Amino acid sequence: MAVREQDNLTINVGKKGVFVGRDWPRHAALLLAIALVVFPLAYAALIATQSNAQVFSFKLTPGGNLGKHFDQVWNDRSLGRFMWNSVVQAVLITVAKTILSLLAGLAFVYFKFRGKWLVFFFVLITLMMPTEVMILALFRFVSDLGWKDSMAGLVVPFAASATGAFLFRQHFANLPRDLSEAAQIDGASPLQFLFKILIPLSWNVVGALAVIQFVFVWNMYLWPVLIISDRDKQVVQVGLQGLQSIDVGLTFGPLMLAALLASIPPALVFIALQKPFMSGFALSADK
Amino acid sequence: MGILASVIISALLGALSFGYKSRREGAMGAALGILGGAVILGALGFCTFASDAESTEGVLGVALAGAFAWMFGAGTKAVFNQRAADLGSGEIRTGTYNLSWWWPWLLLSPTLLILVFFLYLPAYQTFTLSTKLTRLGAPRVADRCLSNFSDILVVNPTTVAIIPLIAIAAIWGIGLWNRLAMPGSTNAAIAAAVRPFGILILIFAFYFIFENENGGYRQIYVNTLIISGFTVGLAMIAGLALAYLAFGRIKGITVYRTLLIWPYAISPPVAGILFFMMFNATGGILAHVVDSFGNFVGLDVSLPNYTKSVGLARATIILASVWKLLGYNLLFFLAGLQTVPRAQIEAATLDGANSWQRFRKIVVPALGPIAFFLLITNLTYSFFDVYGTIDFLTKGAPAGATSVAIYEIIRVGVDNGDLGRGAAQSVILFLAVIGLTAWQFRQSEGRISYGST
Amino acid sequence: MKKLFGLLVAFSLVAAACSGSDEGGAEATAENPVTIQMWVAFSDDARLGFAEDRAAEFTANHPEYIVEVTSFDSYNTVFEQAQLAIDEGNPPEIIHFFEAATQEALDAVDKDGNPIFQSVTEAIDGRTEILGEEVVLGDVVSAATNYYTIDGQLYSMPWNTSSTTMFSNMDILEAAGISEPPKTWAEVETACDAIMGMPDAPSEGCITWPNHGWFFEQALGQAGANLANNDNGRAGRATEVMLNSDAALDYVQWWSDMEDSGNYLYTGTQRDWDGTSAAFQAQNVAMLVYSSSDTTALTAAGDENGFKVQSSFMPFNQDREYAGNLIGGATLWMTAGMDTATQDGALAFLNYFSNPENAAAWHKLTGYIPITNSAVSRLDGEGWYAESPNSKVASDQLDAAANTPASTGALLGNFVAIRDVVTAAIEDILVNDADVATRMQSAQDEAQSLLDDYNELYGG
Questions:
Q1: Mean pLDDT, range C259-279, rounded to an integer
Q2: Are A259 and A42 in contact (CB under 8 A)?
Q3: Residue A138: what pLDDT?
Q4: C287-291 and C129-130: which strand pairing?
Q5: Residues A111, B97: Cα–Cα separation, whole Å
Q6: pLDDT of residue B95
Q7: Which of C62, C85, C233, C252 is the most exposed place for a label (fewest CB within 10 A)?
Q8: Residues B158-186: what's their mean pLDDT?
Q9: Domain C164-325+413-458 falls in which CATH fold?
Q10: Environment class of residue C343 by beta-carbon count within 10 Å: exposed (0-12), middle (13-18) or buried (19+)?
């Protein structure tokens, strides 16, 4: 079921929405909510321009240190490098997860084979096995493989996902069955069928999964803390730690600037993929 | 004596979980149960009942045997049922490919390999590590049987044995009450209302079996409950309220929504950093505002340093987590509100139902599945992802009052290098996750179904 | 298991890129230089930059070697990562370990049971010059030599060495009518009462220092009390830890009383170097007990924020005879099993790194003590101490110590975890008003079991 209307979240009955009373109190309430939600970011943006002395004297006007702080965090403390590492990791995991999930969904829906339910349970059970509860053993195992301080150690353990496999399985199962029959009559192999027919019908789900995965990987903290020790290979969330004290003691400005910079890429991905993300969820929420 | 108790309990639980309708079924269940108990105790080399083992280890050994007996019984039963269902219904699906047998396996192999090596294997290793004393790089490994576990429980083995039993009996009692109560009576209504809260009895019971001495695990348990409970509760309520506010047509709604949802993309560490800045005692705005307000009204008030006040430290972490989760919850509640049946709302509006009545009678039931889904994702967040926030905000201070389970695992297992004790704590967290998932499946039976194929 | 993994790697979308190949070659030449990896626990511009600059200079002077510096955020990180690298059998040539890791570095063995590290004394083997670099090991100041000498040998090359000193905001002290920084606990109390009694008293408290195990150990050293049996682990492996001696209880009690009276600022976080330093720089406290390693920066921060900073000895208990303070800091360890060319390169670099000129520059940059006697006289000759009296305090404090096991400092297994037990107990006392004697007793039990665990895996 595709969602056609762009403003699909709105229920529109008559001149006023069902939930709508008079408009101005809602505007006021929404603005207040936004003010509260945005305040921490706005405050951080202010601090990002100030020197420690200005921070200690609680000046509410921007200081002139933005350029200096940018130079400190981006060049001296290689925030740019950290962010690049994170981008590589996030893209690799997102792509790998999407492909592996598509393949698994294909196998689950378009193939009959012995022991399918067993495999299904095998994958299903992993939903209650969060990596975090086995992180010490995983850490030891991945270190034994010699993958410490490598992109492989950051990516491979997270390249498969039960959630993704089930998402596509559910999506494919709801597509008309004659699609695959027609494809088989045309002599298309399963992979051709996947890439030529299924994927074009699944962009919303792919987009939704991509946003979730990208944000998930970008925000990953505990695993890189353990597995990456070489600062040149560090990812951004952990890299922020080294920015807590640049000179002597706390340096607030550069830290805030770095925190804000580190939040930009996932926001961009979110905004870019907002439409498929929302529709992808509207789809799954229909269930 | 421990072995005898294990055999009896294993046989009983095996039969209970497998079924005992016929003598043959009961016997098979008992055998499966004993097998299950024997497998786990054998894997431990029966160390829990060795002469030098602590009594608490013995109690844990019996409990482990019972748990495995239950798993073997229930697992075999599930397999039998599944096969019966497979044979009975068959799979009526058209359009499936009819190629060589290895095709689906080839498609599934990357996923399966990764799951085997990076989830199942480490999960197994976590269990084996939890019975050892070892450090990274140590030349020796010492067997610790279950003492890594008994160390975080109260010293008195009777308490460890009795309290969970009482809790389980109480939960069983509630189930029995449900079955016996006259359908339609007030009694039945109360019983049905009480039923979902059976899990609280267990949660309460665990409080009493964790070690209470300084640095004991009870504090970690309480921290985790408080921080997770408030985070999830507040984030869900605030998310729903905001979704209600941001739902429906109003000028600029897309902009409003984007601005409200955006913090979803913020990371837990960044949430920690931003709140660290606001609440910082030396340079933070809040301390200054409270100070200035105090000066203005001529009172000597000041914001206590959040890292020194147990309540404020926890509140700050909860606040940062709620702030970070808000966008996510808003997003899903918005999607959920979409599924609210329009016709019913219209009809109710025409019938003169006010908005609260419409909300309670129509919206809440329709949002059930989404709310349940959010409950689980928010819980996962508050169990694990909160690590990043804590690491930047309090590092577990003051005096360990904000050190939650995952934080303690890393402190013990990595910072102190004590892999065995860290793994034992991981196992406990693992059991909690399994318990919650099982509870989720029970509660959502019939609502969320993954189907068998 | 690893063979099976070949399969997985074939599937995985990413190839494990880096594989530390062993540079073999018995001969080091400019065309085919030998790489020497050095892991450093600093990530700030000044200190990491110093190491990188020296590495670059050494590479320029000795083109047959390349010294590569890898930076880590903290001592603990280097320590953990080094353990992992050792576990994998692929450690770097030079590792920067802090003093508390000394016992564990000594005990570290590879999978075959051979020691990971090699004694620097042994490797130098009496030479006075290696690859043209003068050997300075014998010239290292006595406080550091005493701490790191085990069985008559220096296993590692001392580098950054400091002690705990006090920094006073003299503007505040003088405003309260105090002309000299207080020397004893009693004087601190008197001074604090005066300071906090002023109408514009500092907002957060009178004095602060991080809740770090090092300060606790310093107090024990001052009182001549050992932290562990067997002469602080120096006459034989320590098997008993002693966290609840009278000297220890006195210190924690005083600390707790200072907190109760509002004179001591507890920032609320353990090991909070940043927070305590920020409070001092923001003039929210008048005195800071800290590591002398930041002498230069703290003095400069005072100038920047418009107040005068004076450094002095760490205050001691006037009721006990002062036995001396100990060192802190870190040393550079050299891994065993290198070929001669690599090892000589590493040794030459270590000695170049702390030659008088570099040791003096390092001291000026930071406040860590000049690590060799010739560096001290060089600085004296330059008139540096006259110009910057704060910089002399740490060296003087260390020189004033008696050479006893107590003031030398303890060698202890699982020391890092034991320190954390101490700080957790102190935090509990400061924040939750736990009873000092009971809480320290339970810390003692916990620490003892950590030490027992360690000795079970490594000892005898």
A1: 91
A2: no
A3: 94
A4: unpaired
A5: 5
A6: 66
A7: C62
A8: 87
A9: D-Maltodextrin-Binding Protein; domain 2 (3.40.190)
A10: buried
Residue B197 has pLDDT above 90, yes or no: no
**Fold match, C31-162+328-390 / C164-325+413-458:** yes
Residues of A in contact with B427 (CB under 8 A): 133
Average pLDDT value for residue range A24-41: 90
ipTM for this model: 0.85
Neighbours of chain C (3+ CB pairs under 8 A): A, B
Q: Which two tokens stand for residue B249?
A: 């047509």
Q: Which of C7, C14, C208, C304 to mutate to test the interface with A (most CBs of A within 10 A)?
A: C14
A66-285, superfamily in CATH? MetI-like (1.10.3720.10)
Could you read off the pLDDT of B433-445 as tens digits, one per residue? Answer: 888 877 777 666 5
The CATH superfamily of C31-162+328-390 is Periplasmic binding protein-like II (3.40.190.10)
CA-based nearest distance B118→chain A, Å? 5
Report residue C37 as tokens. 């990896």
Partner residue opposite C17 with nearest CB, options A151, A232, A244? A151
Confidence bin at A167 (pLDDT 50/70/90): confident
Q: Does B449 touch chain A (CB under 8 A)?
A: no
> Which letter, b or e, does each residue of B372-405 get, where b requires 16 or more Cβ atoms within 10 Å of its Cβ?
ebbbbebbbbbbbbbbbbbbbbbbbbbbbbbbbb
For residue B142, the cross-strand partners are B133
Which has more pLDDT, B156 or C157? C157
Average pLDDT, stretch B406-428? 91
CA separation for the pair A188, B144 (Å, rounded): 58
What distance in Å separates the CA atoms of residue C217 and residue C323, rounded to the nearest whole number? Answer: 13
Average pLDDT, chain A: 83
The alpha-carbon gap from A247 to the nearest alpha carbon of chain B, in Å, equals 16
Instruction: Tell me if chain A has a CB within 8 Å of the CB of C81.
Output: yes
Is C274's CB within 8 Å of A245's CB?
Answer: yes
Q: In this complex, do B267 and A263 lie within 8 Å of one another by their Cβ atoms?
A: yes
CATH 1.50.10.20 fits B212-443, yes or no: no
Least-confidence region, from B26-35, B272-281, C74-83: C74-83
CA distance C8 to chain B (A): 7
What average pLDDT is seen over chain C? Answer: 90
Domain boundaries, chain A: 66-285
